[in-house]
Amino acid sequence: MDRLFNMDNKFFTVMGRVADLIMLNVVFLICCLPIVTIGASLTALHYVTLKMARNEESYIIRSFFKSFKQNFKQATVINLIMLAVAAILYMDLRIVGNIDGTMSQVLYIVFFAFGILYMMVFLYIYPVLAKFYNSIKNTFRNAFLMAIRHLPYTVLMAVITLLPAGVFFIKSFRIQSMAIMLLCMFGFALEAFINGHFLVKIFDNYIPADADTQDTDLQNENSAETSSAENDHTV
Prior knowledge:
This protein is an all-alpha fold. Helix content is about 70%, strand content about 0%. The chain has eight helices and no strands. It has helices at about 10-30, 40-55, 60-70, 70-95, 100-130, 135-150, 150-160, 175-205. Helix 1 runs antiparallel to helix 2 (about 40-55) and helix 5 crosses helix 6 (about 135-150). The longest helix is centred in the C-terminal third of the chain and has 31 residues, at about 175-205.
């Protein structure tokens, strides 16, 4: 009986994690409402889930707003760039849709390739910003290089990220409504938490063993240009 009500019991551990994810998801969605703050919200979301993946988090809300405030400026600029690129790709695809012949097919392939590259950068850009200090230019560069170098993880994270979109293909309205409700409850946080386990393994390749006691450099292979101090060790 004592084991059943022990707070270290796996049931209580899992339920505690679910409660953390629900709380984090709600805060994330609220902070995304002004639209312009989506970048800072995504960065803060990944900051917390990366810590959760390492079992390092203590105060979910405090950690979220710490990162939100700390990375707001860079995250907002990066978000505006990502939104602008997405808008350009969308407009280009609409234009291509009005073109007939072989040229249309070629352009579709070209823009589809750009779309894949965009997705790859999107998967890494906010976690990299959450984990490392760097210029905006080098943050984009590092995100792209990591996505290429760790392609298997990139593909896996892309599948996990896009999987929730399948809810719109559910034919049963009742099941679809329940799925959407669950996504709104903790879907974004759960997705970031799952991907966080892969990102931790990736980031460990760029963090020296003594990173807990001093600022660190993000060392990209075969590159002397990129350096980043670890974001979550410097306020």
